[in-house]
């Protein structure tokens, strides 16, 4: 017996068309908003098939048990602590495992950026056709509950704004789960990129090279550079320089050090190079930054 709903302890929130139309008229949330959402615990026999897809992205986060998603003839297993997000208009079917049915938090996302949101979550796992491991977080579940409770109060403009402005924060718990509650990792469990960033932060006063950083995570320079840029969007030294200028801003804003002393404190011996690097990133020279206490003042 297959079914799409009717699970003990379930939650389902159907957003009326008039409310989603209202979302499309509110500039702050028009590009990404919730069209439906819910929670199915131990969803035995749960099954959906949509031969033509739907005009919304579908988020499926498995918190217990397991299930599967089929797209384009490819069946993907989704296990506890994993997420799968279907883009809009993609034919699909999905369902709970027959022996160990999943518990899932789910959302249908509307707006012009719903596919961009789907891609942001799924690209963290590399191949789009694979479920992404995101683990478990009480903070994430609390965000879901907050959004649901807000929508259950009704669909006034303030409720729609409150719920949907929390949506990007909820999605970020999947994109960067290491920043959420129980997702905090030990250094031993961190990825090479995360370890490298920690190494950079601990060596802001030193002049690091690509080889220095790569050796700190036991990788070759070329492989590490490719992986780091894939994970962060930046080359390692570029990222390190951003961290150094961030530290320089703090020293200039709160301290009494001269500009050349600030440069030395972040491992740059040439004050002229420091000034060029600072202006390149911040748009103004360090002396101007200090005089005005930042670009926009205090």
UniProtKB/TrEMBL annotation:
Pfam families assigned to the protein according to its UniProt record, in alphabetical order:
AraC_binding, HTH_18
CDD domains hit by this protein:
cupin_MmsR-like_N
SUPFAM superfamilies, alphabetized: Homeodomain-like, Regulatory protein AraC
For whether the record's keyword set contains DNA-binding, the answer is yes
User: What keywords are assigned to this protein?
Assistant: DNA-binding, Transcription, Transcription regulation
Q: Can you tell me which residues the record assigns to a coiled coil?
A: none
Q: Name one GO molecular function term.
A: sequence-specific DNA binding
The record's listing under InterPro entries reads: AraC-bd, Homeodomain-like_sf, HTH-like, HTH_AraC, HTH_AraC-typ_CS, Tscrpt_reg_AraC-type_HTH
Q: Where is the HTH araC/xylS-type domain?
A: 194-292
Source species, domain of life: Bacteria
What is this protein identified as? AraC family transcriptional regulator
